[in-house]
């Protein structure tokens, strides 16, 4: 099992690194690294974990993360079942905060870039037209060379620094308390939950996966995830149910049972607690957006 990235993905003779990703599924490991990261999903669906934030992702998902903010794009379970018709694609950019030099970053002209970097430490999702614009700019950057590539990256950062079409993801008070040894343990927990969340999962089961007692695991998880394990599991199930309601067009009862809930009343209550909408309101709101 992989642990936190230790080696920079950026070549020592380059200012930044951009990669086109194409794999059966995205990297299934919870990790963090010292570089800023801008990532766009071109193909694939699943669940995104950024610090203490959990949400579904799909094509067009654009997220900017800061240094040492733990993250994971976990593809849906069917991507791990060897189905050749499924696959994932994305574009990722890595760079250090001082990729232009630390002195330049402190100048007045880069004030908004400094503000942007501050937001990235919580994780920043670019939405709507802003997300679509950045996606196109990143695809364009893939073929840019030399000084032109620096200018294009700066234009992307400038645009992100001035758009209002974004959501901050992790809680404002979230801090990464993970050590490298913790990432392996959390990866085992994430992998088990994502494989089995549609079934009953007891605290005793998942504590055993982490090689801890249930009480110790509860304290450990709350410290590192900034939420209880039960809240974490509920968010994953609700995120998956949103996908079933919208993408698979299942009815509310089907989405309830196929996402791991056992009663409609509990599903409706938990759905509203996580999304601030009932399942029916959520579907209607999505359909209204699509019509407009």
TrEMBL record:
UniProt cross-references to InterPro entries, sorted A to Z: Cupin_2, Homeodomain-like_sf, HTH_AraC, HTH_AraC-typ_CS, RmlC-like_jellyroll, RmlC_Cupin_sf
Span of domain HTH araC/xylS-type: 187-285
Domain of life: Bacteria
SUPFAM superfamilies associated with the record: Homeodomain-like (SSF46689), RmlC-like cupins (SSF51182)
Transport recorded as keyword: no
Stored CDD domains: cupin_MtlR-like_N
SMART domains noted in UniProt: HTH_ARAC
Keywords, ordered alphabetically: DNA-binding, Transcription, Transcription regulation
Name of the protein in question: AraC family transcriptional regulator
Organism: Chryseolinea lacunae
């Amino acid at each position: 099992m992989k642990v936190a990235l230790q080696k920079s993905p950026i070549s020592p003779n380059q200012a930044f690194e951009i990669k086109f990703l194409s794999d059966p599924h995205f990297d299934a490991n919870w990790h963090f690294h010292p570089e800023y990261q801008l990532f766009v999903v071109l193909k694939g669906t699943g669940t995104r974990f950024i610090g203490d934030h959990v949400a579904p992702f799909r094509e067009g998902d654009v997220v900017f993360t800061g240094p040492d903010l733990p993250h994971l794009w976990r593809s849906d379970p069917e991507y791990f079942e060897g189905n050749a018709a499924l696959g994932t694609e994305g574009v990722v950019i890595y760079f250090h905060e001082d990729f232009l030099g630390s002195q330049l970053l402190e100048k007045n002209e880069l004030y908004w870039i400094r503000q942007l970097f501050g937001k990235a430490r919580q994780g920043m999702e670019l939405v709507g037209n802003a997300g679509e614009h950045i996606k196109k700019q990143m695809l364009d950057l893939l073929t840019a060379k030399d000084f032109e590539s620096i200018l294009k990256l700066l234009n992307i950062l400038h645009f992100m620094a001035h758009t209002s079409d974004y959501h901050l993801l992790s809680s404002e008070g979230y801090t990464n308390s993970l050590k490298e040894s913790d990432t392996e343990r959390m990866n085992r927990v994430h992998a088990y939950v994502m494989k089995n969340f549609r079934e009953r999962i007891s605290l005793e089961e998942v504590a055993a996966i982490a090689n801890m007692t249930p009480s110790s695991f509860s304290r450990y998880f709350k410290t590192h995830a900034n939420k209880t394990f039960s809240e974490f599991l509920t968010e994953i199930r609700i995120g998956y149910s949103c996908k079933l309601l919208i993408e698979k067009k299942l009815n509310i009862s089907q989405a309830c049972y196929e996402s791991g809930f056992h009663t409609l009343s509990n599903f409706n209550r938990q759905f509203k607690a996580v999304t601030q909408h009932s399942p029916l309101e959520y579907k209607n709101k999505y359909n209204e957006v699509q019509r407009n």
